[in-house]
C-alpha cells in the first residue's frame, strides 16, 4: 500500500494518507474539507498576484467587480443584495464627500474603476464642468434600469436564493 496519494477532483488537489498505517479510524469531514479548500489549483493567496489580477482585469471581469448594493426596497423585491452597475441606474451616494446626493449614472468608466453621476461635478478654472468619479461600492442603487438581459440576471439570482431557502427547509427534522 502507498503511504500517501494525491487525487485531483475538479481542480482540487486532495492528499489522502494511508489510514491504516496512521492508526486513525475516522477522519473528521470538516477538517478534511478545510484542508481541501486550501489546495485549489487556480487560487493564489499572494497579495502581489491578487492585486495584479484585480488591476489588470479585462472589462468583462471589471463589470462584475464594479457592483453596487441595492436599496432595502429593491433588496426585498428582487431577493438579491447587489448588481453590476450600469448607465441609467439611479443611485444614492452613501460614502465620501458627496454623501446623500442622488442622481442617474451617466457613465460607467471601467478603465478608471469609477462611475459618473449627474449633478456630481466640479467647475474647472476655464469655466467648464468636469464629472467626479465615484467608486461603485460607495453608492446604493435606488432604481434599476431594466431590460430583458437584466431581468434574466435578476430572475436567475432569485431562483438561486429560492433553492437555498428550500434546501434549509428540507434539512429540518
Query: What spatial order of strands do you see in the largest sheet?
Result: 4-3-9-5-6-7-8
Proportion of helical residues? 25-40%
Rounded to the nearest angstrom, the radius of gyration is 23 Å
**What CATH architecture of the largest domain would you give?**
Roll
Outline: globular
Largest sheet: 7 strands, mixed
Which structural class do the helices and strands define? alpha+beta
Ends distance = 42 Å
Top-tier CATH class of the largest domain = Mainly Beta
Transmembrane segments: 20-41
GO molecular function, one term: structural constituent of ribosome
Protein name: KOW domain-containing protein
Region (Disordered): 154-173
List keywords for this structure.
single chain; 173 residues; alpha+beta; 2 domains; two-stranded antiparallel ribbon; structural constituent of ribosome
What does this structure look like?
The chain crosses the membrane at residues 20-41. It holds the Pfam family KOW. Belongs to the universal ribosomal protein uL24 family. GO terms for molecular function: RNA binding; structural constituent of ribosome. This is KOW domain-containing protein. There is one protein chain. The protein has helices at residues 19-22, 29-37, 47-55, 59-65, 72-78, 148-170, and strands spanning 4-9, 12-17, 67-70, 82-84, 90-93, 102-109, 114-123, 129-134, 139-143. By secondary structure, the protein is an alpha+beta fold. The chain has 2 domains: 4-43, no CATH class; 58-170, SH3 type barrels. The strands form 2 sheets. A 7-stranded mixed beta sheet has the order 4-3-9-5-6-7-8. Strands 1-2 form a two-stranded antiparallel sheet. A hairpin with a 5-residue loop joins β7 and β8. The longest helix has 23 residues, at 148-170. It is globular, with a radius of gyration of 23 Å.
